[in-house]
């Protein structure tokens, strides 16, 4: 496999995975593909939570720079407009 190639994920129904939370989401192609893969392959999925805040980068009480805040707003808007529209009716979509 060459750098940049995407390897096909193994087919696995993940029968016990009911809730997925994606923290630090950005509207990058890889993130969107990951969410789409989960929607299609996690048969027991009941809820998906998208959180664009990257809390691990800034300890409690440390202000995030405006550039990060802008990225979070864009990621949140993208998730609400694009990903929410792709959710099956059986999956609850939450965007923080």
Automatic annotation (TrEMBL):
Pfam families (alphabetical): LRR_At1g61320_AtMIF1 (PF23622)
Q: Which residues form the At1g61320/AtMIF1 LRR domain?
A: 8-93
InterPro entries hit by this protein: LRR_At1g61320_AtMIF1
Instruction: Write down what this protein is called.
Output: Putative FBD domain-containing protein
This chain's source organism reads: Rosa chinensis
């Amino acid at each position: 496999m060459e750098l940049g190639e995407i390897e096909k994920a193994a087919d696995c129904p993940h029968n016990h995975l009911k809730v997925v939370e994606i923290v630090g989401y950005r509207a990058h192609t890889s993130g969107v593909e990951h969410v789409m893969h989960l929607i299609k392959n996690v048969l027991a999925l009941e809820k998906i939570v998208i959180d664009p805040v990257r809390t691990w980068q800034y300890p409690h009480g440390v202000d995030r720079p405006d550039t990060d805040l802008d990225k979070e707003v864009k990621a949140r808007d993208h998730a609400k407009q694009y990903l929410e529209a792709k959710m099956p009716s059986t999956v609850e979509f939450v965007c923080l």
